[in-house]
Every structure is written in C-alpha cells, then in structure tokens.
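Progress against Task 2.4 (sequence-to-structure conversion) is shown through the following example record, which the project officer requested during the mid-term review.
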Amino acid sequence: MFESEIPVIVRFERTIKEQKSTKKACINRTMFMTYQTAKETGNRCLDLIERN
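Structure tokens generated for the chain above:
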C-alpha cells in the first residue's frame, strides 16, 4: 500500500488509529517514531541516522 508515495506499514497505522502505545502494540519505539517522521517529511525511506 502506498499513501502519497510513502510505503504504509499497516501495523503502525493500526496502532495510530487505535491510539495504542508502542509498548502495548509490541512495536519498537525508534522504528515507530522514524516511520512517523518519514510520513511527515515525505521521505520514502526510514532514516535511522541521527542528525544535529
């Protein structure tokens, strides 16, 4: 599935919709936050490199 050219991770989207915590959804918080940032910025890739 693609939403605005950004790959959709169904499990993450379900967690957002249900307003679950990442802990309850058994999702790695770093990956989840990276996914949300990629969606917000329109980046098709999950960027795990920290930048200052």
